[in-house]
Amino acid sequence: xxxxxxxxxxxxxxxxxxxxxxxxxxxxxxxxxxxxxxxxxxxxxxxxxxxxxxxxxxxxxxxxxxxxxxxxxxxxxxxxxxxxxxxxxxxxxxxxxxxxxxxxxxxxxxxxxxxxxxxxxxxxxxxxxxxxxxxxxxxxxxxxxxxxxxxxxxxxxxxxxxxxxxxxxxxxxxxxxxxxxxxxxxxxxxxxxxxxxxxxxxxxxxxxxxxxxxxxxxxxxxxxxxxxxxxxxxxxxxxxxxxxxxxxxxxxxxxxxxxxxxxxxxxxxxxxxxxxxxxxxxxxxxxxxxxxxxxxxxxxxxxxxxxxxxxxxxxxxxxxxxxxxxxxxxxxxxxxxxxxxxxxxxxxxxxxxxxxxxxxxxxxxxxxxxxxxxxxxxxxxxxxxxxxxxxxxxxxxxxxxxxxxxxxxxxxxxxxxxxxxxxxxxxxxxxxxxxxxxxxxxxxxxxxxxxxxxxxxxxxxxxxxxxxxxxxx
Length: 473
Description:
The chain is α+β, with helices and mostly antiparallel strands and 473 residues long. Helices cover 39% and strands 17% of the residues. Strands 1, 2, 3, 4, 5, 6, 7, 12 and 13 form a 9-stranded mixed sheet that branches. Helix 3 crosses helix 4 (214-229), helix 4 (214-229) packs antiparallel against helix 5 and helix 7 packs antiparallel against helix 9. It is globular.
């Protein structure tokens, strides 16, 4: 069975520069992918669907399960295959049980089937259909995507690193507290890519790892995510799930208004920076702050302020963008240097042994730019009367900045009360001191994930060897 399974993973994200600006294609942001990942396992089904009585020759059964949420029943789909024998003829409508919609899974499945049918054509798509019970889709997420306080208490543990992989967060899908890593975007991207790969590699002799059409998957995942949200969002979370850490510039939203043009969406993703943070002697730490923020409300208020204030608001955005551009320039220049040298000199900069070299100059610039980023975002929040960096977060971030070896910190994305990010020198002492500083604040939990250059990955050849996946194959 494992030889016929497709396993695809997509990372979480942290937008460390360009919050709000990424809503406008004239501006850009800097998004880091994380080592925490969502996994979609797609395989020929081994189960009988709850909709078996309704199966006919034009129906494809699909069963979607989330083993980390045992109290949530599997979702059973019966997909209508009418019209698959002609280009553009299939709409892949479906019935589901339970009938209540899960918009993210529903739209991801349908869009993935549309993409596979478009790529393969009617004849090859039809021949790739499973012959027996349909398809199983199994969704798993690394522990960092969900608040794990209840799991730690239930298991009598203290540290997140002691939790087994794919721990159940002791909640339902509807009630689980998330950590702001972009779980819905990673989920949608993983399902779109996993289902698409399942069909296309069945008809391709190419290596699965190199045959993944990232731009096609990106367009389909952007569409599915927008349909699920009921609006066209900024798209940076889906983009990082596909392309990893990069400078993001939003696609023109009008591209998604026409189904005929959807497959060209998302190609304007900006320049991919590789390496970005990983490998530069600098690490990313994300911390979950157990307090909620209504991100759509924050965005609505900022956009209303921008519209009302016109030139004044544009000046603020332009200043933030100029600083973001400087951040990209510094990271690009560090990425062009010998990486072993950069890592040595970054650590030497921290110890005071090398302050005057090129790397030391760039680190000084990085510290300055990250501080200016906070000033710019706070200024926008104050002008718009929006808590982008609330007082509580300011106290927390200032405490982090005081730790020797911390280069900068801030609130990712739209800000608010949900989370913080910290960039720090890659050294055990700095990490230990930073963790100790965070422990002095209630309801603040450092996550285990780090920054990663990688986006979507085909894990089909490697995950089958890992014990954590064996029971699902």
